[in-house]
Amino acid sequence: MMTSSRKIILFNPKTSDISRRKGVLPLALLSISSKLNAEGYHIVIIDEATDSFSEEVLDGALCFGISAMIGYQIYSALSMAKRIRKLHPGIPIVWGGWHPSIQPEQTAENDHVDYLVRGQGEETFYELIKALEQNVGFETILGLTYKRDGQIRSNPDRPIVDPNTFPHLPYELIDMPKYIHASEFGKRTINYLTSIGCPFNCGFCAEQLVHHRKWYPLTAERVLKDLAYLIHTYGIDSVVINDSEFFINEKRVVEICRGMIDTGFHIKWGNVNGRADILLRYQEETWNLMRKSGLQSILTGAETYDPIILKLINKKISIENTIDFSKRAKKFGIIIKFSMMIGLPIKDRQKTIYREFAETIDFINMLYRVNPDNMFLLFMYTPFPGTPLYNRSVELGYQGPQSLEEWGLFLQGLNSMLTPWTDEKISEIVYQVNFYFPFVSNMVHNVILGYPLLKKTVALPVERILYVIMKWRLRTKFFAFPVEYLALKQVMKWMNR
After folding, report:
1. Residue 5: enclosing H or E segment and its boundaries?
2. 226-247 per-position pLDDT tens digit
3. What are the residues whose beta carbons fall under 8 Å from the beta carbon of 481, sequence distance 6 or more?
4. What letters, b where the CB count within 10 A reaches 16 and e where it falls short, cover 291-318?
5. pLDDT class for 5, splitting at 50, 70, 90?
6. Please, which residues bridge with residue 154 across strands?
7. pTM for this one?
């Protein structure tokens, strides 16, 4: 094995200004570290949400790498990049992640960006490290954007590499206990990724810009090996799978589920992304296997109650699909978490945003009647650059951020993501009802049932009162004077701090 005294620092910025005690595994940083770690490089991962930063860590560093998505992560990453530049001006600063991949040239215009890794970063970052270490040129590194002679240069895109060819994630690089947390699925939950990409092209989604409508899964054998390692090494009892789309291949799903059953994993897994039209084509035997293997819930983008809007966003599902999907999942005891949105860029809009919101709540109430355990997420449509609906939004008067600094402020306040056809009041109401869904779907109730006796005795009566109030509000669509919502916000802020 090659050894190196050179150090690589990787930084995972916080997603909000509120620290969290239990983080989400920085899977992207672990993945780009795997090949370099296997060759003996000294990888230091700093997760801002869980780790402290000391400038001494920069001594001897070959580069400082940052992965960032739109919003607070960019804001925080820029703050750190400015600090690095001041402390050690000679350390190259490398950016990667979704936003830099979608807006590479605009991102590279910033003075605190030296190199930019686009798309799947494992091979590109590996080759960049070699070039930096050997002090050679960058012209042949596919997927790299960089600066030379005051000009921004972007090499051709790199084809996606089969993720099965990469080494297993080097979990030993991070303090794993910080990432193991209690959830609705178990007491020792972590997040995990079994595939990258998605073959669909929904008009609001940036996934297609990064992975070009391709889906690259880990084999069932690789998934089972990874899960076995996590269970035996860290005592994991539950997993949240973060794939953009998990259920593309029914045969692979069957192999994973049978493997989990046959090896006696006895874990629960959930919040797994899947489309209604695909899962409705699954055999009943597959549904039985999924439930028997520990599947608790599926996250799906229902998006809307309106067939016209479904056509606008190129979702290629129907309202009937959504309803039938809910019925099918209920039959097998699997909860569906529906993601919905309002405020899409509709030309010659016939309805006010408030009427659209009210009709969406009616649709949600109908799905609750199909299965009271259903869960929901409701969003205001937010235009993301490069997507088909972003251009339509601009045509209808939307003006998005024009620099990396402005993208860093994006999503940090209600006003930052408002389109001309929405307003701050409806955004606040949408934010409010999202507080209600975990109570109305009994998720909070089920979590409290696992509390110690004294804590449970105190919490259950309060939860039941909130359940009644919130259920009434959703049923009547009366959201004024939200005393319980304002109180909950304060409690959440206090708990996070």
Report:
1. none
2. 999 999 999 999 999 999 999 9
3. none
4. bebbbbbbbbbbbbbbeebbebbebebe
5. low
6. 145
7. 0.92
Strands 7-12 and 61-67 come out as parallel
Task: Give pLDDT tens digits for 281-330.
Answer: 999 999 999 999 999 999 999 999 999 999 999 999 999 999 999 999 99
Q: List C-alpha distances in Å: 488 to 17, 127, 442, 468, 475.
A: 18, 49, 16, 15, 20
**pLDDT, position 457:** 94
Residue 133 has pLDDT above 70, yes or no: yes
Q: Which of 393, 375, 397 is nearest to 384 (CA)?
A: 393
| Spatial contact of 94 and 80, defined as CB atoms under 8 Å apart | no
Closest CA to 434 of 493, 364, 494: 364
Give SS3 for 241.
Answer: strand
How far, in Å, are 272, 340, 341, 439, 471 from residue 361 at the CA level?
A: 24, 10, 11, 16, 12
Residues 340-371 as b/e (b if ≥16 CB within 10 A, e otherwise) read bbbbbbbeeeeeebeebbebbbebbeebbebb
CA distance 188 to 406: 38
Contact, 370 vs 323, CB < 8 A? yes
